[in-house]
Design brief:
The complex is a heterodimer.
Chain A (H helix, E strand, L loop, with lengths): L15 H9 L4 H28 L3 H5 L1 H6 L7 H22 L7 H23 L17 H27 L4 H16 L2 H10 L1 H4 L8 H27 L2 H9 L4 H16 L1 H14 L11 H9 L8 H30 L5
Chain B lengths: L5 H5 L10 H33 L29 H34 L4 H15 L3 H13 L9 E3 L3 E4 L2 E4 L1 E4 L3 H29 L5 H19 L5 E4 L2 E3 L2 E3 L2 E3 L1 H27 L3 H9 L4 H31 L11 H12 L2 H31 L4
Antiparallel strand pairs in B: 1-2, 2-3, 3-8, 4-5, 6-7
Classes of the chains: A mainly alpha, B alpha+beta.
C-alpha cells in the first residue's frame, strides 16, 4: 500500500514556474514560435516608447499647461467653483459606494436620499459653474469660458441626461400601437443612426440658428449640447427598446388584470423592469458619448482635444505633438477604462441576464 | 396592442364616442400628426425667412458653378470643375478609405479576436492590451496621434525609411510597388478565368464525391491547388510576364511610379483599421465563445480533427452570432470616416464643408451629406443582411 509520502510526485516540468511556462507559452511548437514573436514585438515597441519617454520627450509642456488642460479658459479666480462641483460629485460617489456596498442593506432609506442628491447635483453644478450676471459672489461665467476636461465632462453629462427622457419616449413611440407615432419615431431613429455624429453636430451648429425665430440666439456650447442630445437619444431609444422587448408579455397582462391603466402599466410595471435591464448598455452609451465629445473640435469648442491643439501651437512648445496628444489619449483612456470597469462591476451587481 | 374588451362589444351604445378606444386611437394619431406638422411648419417658415434674409434660395443650381478650390487627392479633378464634380471626388475618396478599411479591419479583428482566446498567455495579453487601449480612447485622438505625432514626424522624403520590397515611408506618405498590366495581360486573364472554371468544376465533383462516399474530400485544398497550378502554368505559357512590377523611385521632391499613398490617407486608414479592428475583435471573440463547448466535444467525439472542427462546427455557428454586430461595426467605420476633416483628408464631409464655406448653402449641403451617408449605410446593411440570411439559413 502506497502511503501519501510514497506517491509519485508530478514531473518537474508540469508544476511550478516551469510548468506554467510550458503550459502557457510553449505548449506546442507553434505556440513557442508565437511566444518568441510576441517577445520580439514587445521588446521593440517598449524599448522605443520608454527611451523616448525618458530621454527625448519634453514633459514640461504638460506640467506647465495642466490647468489649461483641465478647465480651459475658465477664469482662474473662480476655480473654487469647479472644485466645489468636483467635491459634490466625489461626496455623492462615496455615499453611493456606501449605500450600495456590502453594508448597504442597513441604509435602504439612505439610498433614496443619495438618488435625490444625484438628481439635484446636476442643476446645482450648472448653476454653480454658470453663475448669474451682476453679483459678486457668483459672477456669470459664459459658456465660451468653459473648456478643457471640464467641458468634455459637461457635454457628456448634459448629453446623456437630456437624451435619456427623449430616448425613452422614442422607444415607447417605436413600440406604440398607433401607426403614425410608430412611423415617426422609427424614421427619426433610423435617420439619426444612419448618419455620422459630425453631420448632426454640423447641423446643430449651422442649421439651429436658421430654424429659430429671429432674435433668438443660442450660444455655441448649447448648440453642441442640442446636437449630442438629438444624436444620443436615437441610440438610447434602441437600447431601451431592447429592454422593453425583454419584459415578458405576462407582465403586461398581469398589470392589466389587476386593473392598472395603460399609463400605469408603463410607468409602474414595464419601464422599471425594462430600464433596469438596460443600465449597462446605457453606461456604455455614456462612455462612447464621453469619447465622442472630442468631435466638438470640428465645430470649434475648446474641449480637451482642442486645448491640446492650441497648446501644440504655443511658441515655446512648438511641435511637441507626441507628448501632448499622448497625454490627452491617456486622460481619455483613464476615464473610459474606469467607467467601463465600473459598468462591468455594475452588470455583475445587478445580475442582468441571471434572473 | 389591439384591446377589445367584452364590455365594448356587448353594450356598445353605452360607451360615449369619446371613450371608445377606436375613436381615441384615431383622434390621438391625428393630434400627433397635427403637432408634428405644426412644429415642422414653424421650423420651415423660420428657416425660409432666415434663408431669404441671407439671400439664399433652396435650389441645387449652385452645384453647376465652378468650384475653384484644390482637392489633395482622388479621381481626376481640376479647380475649374463644378461643385458637383468636387463632391463626387469626396464621395469616391470616402468609398476608397471605407472599402479598404473594412477589408483590413476585418482581417485585424479576426486575428485579434482569435488571439484573445489563445491559450498562449503572452499572445492573449498583447491582444487584450491592444483592444482595451484602442476601445477606450476616442478615434479622433487616435487619428491625431497617427497623423501629427507619428506620420508627420517621419523622416523627410530624401531620408525616407526603405523597407524590404521597395517600400518607402516618409512624412509625405508611403510609396509601394504596384503591378501594372503588360501586353500579354489579356491572354493571361483569359487563362486565369479558365483556371477558375476548372477549379469550380473540381469543387463540384469533389463535393459530390464527399456526399456519396461520406469521406471528407478536402475541397478547398483540391481547388486551391488546381487553381494555383493552372495560374502558374498560364503565367509561363503567355509570351512575356503579364504583370510588370512598377517600383517607386525618387524623382525630384517625391516618389514617382508605383502606388503612392498620401499621409492623410495612410493616417485615416491606420486610425480606422486599428479602432474598428478592436471592436471587431470583441465581436469575433463573443461569437466564438457563444459556441457551446459540447459542440466542440461532440465534433471531437465523432472523429473530426482540429481543422475540421474549426471549419465545420465552430465557424458556421460562430458566424451566426458574429454577422449582425459585424454589420454595425462596418457601418460605424463608414460613418467614422467623416472624421477625415480633422486631418485634412478630402472625404465627402470635408469637401462638402468647403462647398458650404464657399457658397453658404447650408440646407442643400447638409441634405447632400446626409443622403450620401444614408445611401451608403442602407447599401452596406442590405449586402450584409443578404449575407446574414445565407449564414442563418443553416439553422434548423
Amino acid at each position: 500500500m502506497a502511503t501519501i509520502s510514497e506517491t509519485v510526485r508530478p514531473p518537474r516540468t508540469s508544476v511550478g514556474v516551469l510548468g506554467w511556462l510550458k503550459e502557457n507559452l510553449f505548449s506546442t511548437w507553434y505556440n513557442a514560435l508565437l511566444t518568441f514573436g510576441s517577445l520580439g514585438l514587445i521588446y521593440v515597441v517598449l524599448r522605443g516608447i520608454i527611451t523616448w519617454a525618458l530621454t527625448g520627450a519634453r514633459w514640461d509642456v504638460v506640467t506647465t499647461n495642466l490647468t489649461l488642460f483641465l478647465i480651459g479658459p475658465f477664469p482662474r479666480d473662480q476655480v473654487w467653483r469647479v472644485w466645489a462641483c468636483v467635491i459634490v460629485v466625489i461626496l455623492l460617489g462615496g455615499l453611493s459606494l456606501v449605500a450600495w456596498g456590502p453594508l448597504g442593506r442597513r441604509f435602504k432609506t439612505a439610498r433614496r436620499w443619495v438618488v435625490i442628491g444625484w438628481l439635484l447635483s446636476f442643476p446645482l453644478t450648472i448653476v454653480l459653474l454658470h453663475g448669474f450676471g451682476g453679483n459678486s459672489v457668483l459672477p456669470a461665467v459664459g459658456t465660451s469660458y468653459w473648456g478643457g476636461l471640464l467641458l468634455t465632462f459637461l457635454l457628456a453629462i448634459v448629453g446623456i441626461v437630456a437624451s435619456f427622457p427623449l430616448g425613452v419616449l422614442l422607444a415607447l413611440g417605436r413600440r406604440s400601437g398607433l401607426p403614425v407615432v410608430r412611423w415617426f419615431c422609427t424614421l427619426y431613429i433610423e435617420l439619426i443612426r444612419g448618419v455620422p455624429l459630425v453631420t448632426v453636430l454640423f447641423m446643430a451648429a449651422i442649421m439651429l440658428p436658421l430654424f429659430l425665430p429671429e432674435g433668438v440666439r443660442v450660444d455655441k456650447v448649447l448648440r453642441a449640447m442640442v446636437g449630442f442630445t438629438l444624436f444620443t437619444a436615437a441610440y438610447i431609444a434602441e437600447n431601451v427598446r431592447g429592454g422593453l422587448a425583454a419584459v415578458p408579455l405576462g407582465q403586461y397582462e398581469a398589470a392589466r388584470a389587476v386593473g392598472l391603466s395603460g399609463v400605469q402599466v408603463m410607468a409602474l410595471i414595464v419601464l422599471p423592469q425594462a430600464l433596469r435591464a438596460v443600465i449597462p448598455p446605457i453606461v456604455g452609451q455614456f462612455i462612447s458619448l464621453f469619447k465622442d465629445t472630442s468631435l466638438v473640435v470640428i465645430i470649434g469648442l475648446l474641449d480637451l482635444l482642442n486645448i491640446a491643439k492650441s497648446v501644440v501651437a504655443q511658441p515655446q512648445f512648438m511641435g511637441l505633438k507626441r507628448e501632448v496628444y499622448l497625454f490627452v489619449a491617456v486622460i481619455y483612456f483613464i476615464f473610459s477604462y474606469a467607467m467601463s470597469y465600473a459598468s462591468r462591476r455594475l452588470e455583475v451587481a445587478l445580475g442582468v441576464g441571471e434572473r | 396592442m389591439a384591446h377589445k374588451s367584452p364590455v365594448s362589444t356587448m353594450s356598445h351604445r353605452a360607451v360615449p364616442f369619446w371613450r371608445d378606444v377606436r375613436v381615441i386611437r384615431i383622434l390621438s394619431q391625428i393630434a400627433f400628426a397635427i403637432l408634428v406638422a405644426v412644429v415642422a411648419g414653424l421650423l420651415y417658415s423660420n428657416m425660409k425667412r432666415g434663408l431669404e434674409t441671407r439671400g439664399l434660395g433652396g435650389s441645387f443650381d449652385f452645384l453647376r458653378l465652378e468650384a475653384g478650390f484644390q482637392i489633395g487627392e482622388g479621381i481626376t479633378y481640376d479647380p475649374s470643375d463644378s461643385y458637383a464634380r468636387a463632391f463626387l471626388v469626396g464621395v469616391v475618396n470616402t468609398l476608397r478609405v471605407t472599402i479598404v478599411g473594412i477589408a483590413l479591419a476585418t482581417i485585424l479583428g479576426v486575428v485579434m479576436g482569435v488571439a484573445r482566446l489563445s491559450t498562449n498567455w503572452l499572445v492573449n495579453k498583447i491582444a487584450t492590451v491592444y483592444v482595451e487601449l484602442t476601445r477606450n480612447t476616442p478615434l479622433l485622438v487616435q487619428l491625431f496621434v497617427w497623423y501629427f505625432a507619428i506620420i508627420l514626424k517621419l523622416p523627410r522624403v530624401r531620408e525616407s525609411i526603405a523597407l524590404p520590397g521597395s517600400i518607402f515611408i516618409s512624412n509625405r506618405g508611403a510609396a509601394l510597388p504596384w503591378p501594372v498590366p503588360t501586353a500579354s495581360f489579356r491572354p493571361w486573364l483569359y487563362g486565369l478565368i479558365g483556371a477558375m472554371t476548372v477549379a469550380v468544376a473540381l469543387w463540384i465533383v469533389r463535393t459530390r464525391g464527399e456526399r456519396r462516399t461520406g469521406r471528407p474530400a478536402f475541397n478547398m485544398l483540391w481547388i486551391g491547388a488546381a487553381f494555383v497550378a493552372l495560374a502558374i502554368l498560364d503565367w509561363f505559357v503567355v509570351p512575356g510576364a503579364p504583370l510588370g512590377l512598377d517600383k517607386p523611385s525618387l524623382q525630384g521632391w517625391n516618389y514617382q511610379g508605383g502606388l503612392t499613398l498620401t499621409p492623410e490617407f495612410v493616417a485615416m486608414l491606420l486610425g480606422l483599421v486599428m479602432y474598428t479592428g478592436a471592436f471587431i475583435a470583441e465581436v469575433v471573440r463573443a461569437g466564438i465563445q457563444a459556441v457551446p463547448r459540447g459542440q466542440i466535444e461532440a465534433a471531437r467525439a465523432v472523429g473530426l480533427n482540429e481543422t475540421q472542427t474549426l471549419r465545420l462546427v465552430i465557424f458556421p455557428q460562430a458566424l451566426r452570432v458574429i454577422v449582425p454586430p459585424l454589420t454595425s461595426q462596418y457601418l460605424n467605420l463608414a460613418k467614422n470616416s467623416s472624421l477625415a476633416i480633422a486631418i485634412g483628408f478630402p472625404d465627402l464631409f470635408n469637401v462638402a464643408g468647403t462647398i458650404f464655406n464657399q457658397t453658404g448653402r447650408a440646407v442643400q449641403v447638409i441634405v447632400m451629406i446626409m443622403v450620401s451617408y444614408l445611401i451608403m449605410s442602407l447599401f452596406t446593411s442590405l449586402l450584409m443582411n443578404l449575407y446574414n440570411r445565407r449564414v442563418q439559413l443553416v439553422e434548423r
